[in-house]
Write a structure and sequence with these properties.
This protein has 363 residues and is of the alpha+beta class. It has three domains: 46-134, Beta Barrel (Thrombin, subunit H), CATH 2.40.10.10; 143-247, Trypsin-like serine proteases (Thrombin, subunit H); 257-349, Pdz3 Domain (Roll), CATH 2.30.42. The chain is 20% helix and 35% strand. It has seven helices and 21 strands. It has helices at 2-24, 34-46, 91-94, 234-247, 262-267, 283-287, 317-324; strands spanning 50-60, 68-80, 86-89, 99-103, 109-118, 123-127, 151-156, 164-178, 184-191, 203-205, 211-218, 229-233, 257-258, 273-274, 277-278, 293-294, 300-301, 304-309, 312-313, 332-339, 342-349. The protein is elongated.
Length: 363
């Protein structure tokens, strides 16, 4: 009786373990969940597009020395924009560089020249003279189609560890962050995909492997990923990069005014953007907008204060510039001002900014 019970127990255990034994014998390489398969496919397709950006500065040990050394002062990530050798990254990755080096996926290193940059959008375009067969551009997505909860993948070089992939979701949309110039970058994508120092300038991809953002900032007391990262939306990138390639800088139309600093405006308790001077022969002056004047006692008298453009409320210079960036030279906008308590409306034809071409001296 005891032996029967013992063997029955062994038989029961064998039957219980049989499915696990069969499962463990399955070829692991042939088994993937749908999500794993998607992650692997995206990584294999996108990683050849991701590059390592090294920022070096020239350093002299002392002012009497003739020996100049090249010292790495930072690194980040970039990605191939097209087969002509254009590389996109963050402006803060290349800032103050004496020399920039791009390392491709095959570990070949190439000197890079700066084509153009926008401090306001924290974007920069570099060029390398690598053969076209070494360059794999990323397919471009549409950031307007993103939804909270959608999967996103970040590929970059955190802490100098090249081609690292992290996976997360879109945590929020329509965020605002400040650039190095304290200009607001709007419609930013927030993600919980781990982003660390060195990921800056790298791509944020959707589940089709399309570029939907450029990773740029994190919020973290320690400086490491805390689950809150931000990416410049690809729709902004698609608009800015062609301007950087053609002009070396971001182009926005102008209305032709000079305005005081926001700090002065706030101190004076003024709501909107005061027009200090409407430049002669430019759109604002031609439309009838007036600037500040002095009265007989020498006091400054306000002219027009811009409070609205095409239905968008204007509270400060950042609002003004961001609104103008949505238009092109030649567009007609309705500018609403406050003139001594009266609401004034002007149809203003925007003009092209002068001296658009920036001289690029960096290598």
């Amino acid at each position: 009786m005891h032996k029967t019970t013992f063997f029955a127990g062994l038989l029961s255990l064998a039957l219980t373990l049989a499915p696990f034994t069969a499962y463990s014998a399955t070829d692991y390489l042939s088994f993937k969940t749908e999500d794993e398969a998607n992650n692997i496919e995206i990584f294999k397709a996108a990683s050849p597009s991701v590059v390592f950006v090294t920022n070096s500065a020239l350093y002299r040990a002392n002012r009497f020395s003739l020996n100049v050394q090249e010292v790495p002062q930072g690194s980040g990530t970039g990605f191939v924009w097209d087969k002509s050798g254009l590389i996109v990254t963050n402006f803060h990755v290349i800032q103050n560089a004496s020399r920039l080096t791009i390392t491709l996926q095959d570990q070949s290193a190439w000197d890079a020249e700066v084509v153009g940059y926008s401090e306001d959008k924290d974007l920069a375009v570099l060029r390398v003279k690598a053969p076209a067969d070494k360059l794999t551009p990323l397919p471009l997505g549409d950031s307007a189609l993103l939804e909270v909860g959608r999967k996103v993948i970040a590929i970059g070089n955190p802490f100098g560890l090249d081609t690292t992939m992290t996976v997360g979701v879109v945590s929020a949309l329509g965020r605002e962050i400040n650039s190095l110039t304290n200009r607001t970058i709007r419609d930013v994508v927030q993600t919980d995909a781990p982003i660390n120092p060195g990921n800056s300038g790298g791509p944020l991809l959707n589940s089709l492997g399309q570029l939907v953002g450029v990773n740029t900032q994190i919020i973290s007391p320690s400086g490491a990923s805390a689950g809150i990262g931000f990416a410049i939306p690809v729709n902004t990138v698609k608009k800015v990069i062609p301007q950087l390639v053609q002009y070396g800088q971001e182009i926005r139309p102008v209305i032709g005014i000079e305005n005081p600093p926001d700090a002065w405006t706030r101190q004076m308790g003024i709501n909107g953007v005061p027009v200090m001077r409407a430049t002669p022969s430019l759109p604002a002056e031609r439309a009838g907008i007036t600037g500040m004047q002095q009265n007989g006692r020498g006091d400054i008298v306000l002219g027009d204060v811009i409070i609205e453009i095409d239905g968008t409320q204007i509270k400060n210079q950042d609002d003004l510039l961001n609104t103008l960036e949505q238009h092109m030279p030649g567009d007609v906008v309705k500018v609403v001002t406050d003139r001594e308590g009266r609401r004034m409306e002007f149809n203003v034809t925007l003009a092209e900014a002068q001296n658009n071409t920036r001289r690029i001296n960096s290598r």
